[in-house]
Amino acid sequence: MRLARRQPIAPLEYTRRLWLRSWVGAVVFFLYAPLLVLMVFSFNDSKANVVWRGFTTKYYGKVFHNESLMVALGNSLTIAFLATIASIVLGTLAAVMLWRFRFPFKASVEGSLALPIVVPEICMGVAMLVFFAAIGWPNDLPWPFSLGAITIAHITFCFPFVALVVRARLASFNREQEEAAKDLGASEWQSFRDVLLPHMKPGIIAGALLSFTLSLDDFVITFFTSGPNTITFPVKVYSMVRFSVTPEVNAVSALLIVLTVILTTIALKMQDITKSAAAGAH
To answer: What was the pLDDT predicted at 184?
Structure first.
């Protein structure tokens, strides 16, 4: 059988595609070129970090031997993990509540849920500082209880992102599937677990990844809610950058970028596996 010949592209269409690809390429270069430069200069054998002096990996060794930096990174990962778990639960329940039920002042509740997203972080940070000062939250608690104030603040601005993503996912759900499960004898919990939850899983994974990234990278709110004995990775990096941008700072930033890319890849793979399993089940 003869293969169909490709139709020639009209000059106007070819120009349009070339302009669109050039524009997308320029945007991608603008977004990722600073990250590539940062990762390249993390191997620079110079303390000034302005002129390339040679290739070295000694600053990565210094990062892992910097005890205070590793403690700060551990604090950030702990806070991000706890905030993500709590945000998944609260955000998913809030999304299901707003999607399924009708109640008075529902529009006001939806609007207030979006406040942590639209309010500037400096306002959120000051509000959290005033709140914890008013209730007398102690800052000298032993680890990991000393991370409580920061974790609560991160949950406050992370779970609305989960709620919005899961709510958008629920918009495509066919309610007849849940009703069919109940007609076949499934209880309320069984229909939620076996029908509704698998449909929400891609949105939950995306919301969890978004929450983890936002919590791990947050500086402003953490700066206002952290105590004298508690420091996170962004705050530590900021204190190091105040003096000079050294290859050590670039090295630890490059490691954080690699960690974020790995977690994103894992989340996308899990999402693809979930979609394939759901398609196979259907």
So the answer is: 78
d(CA 199, CA 170): 8
Q: What is the pTM of this model?
A: 0.77
**Residue 224 scores a pLDDT above 80:** yes
Query: What is the DSSP track for 124-190?
Result: HHHHHHHHHHHTT--S-PPTTGGGHHHHHHHHHHHHHHHHHHHHHHHTT--HHHHHHHHHTT--HHH
Backbone φ, ψ for residue 45 (5° rounding): -90, 60
Question: What CA–CA distances, in Å, run from 31 to 22, 24, 28, 49, 181?
Answer: 14, 11, 5, 21, 47
- Residue 7: HSE in the Cβ half-sphere, 13 Å Cα cutoff: 5
Amino acid at 16: R
Residues 99/81/143/151 CA torsion (nearest 10 deg): -40
**What is the gyration radius of the CA atoms in the chain, in angstroms?**
24
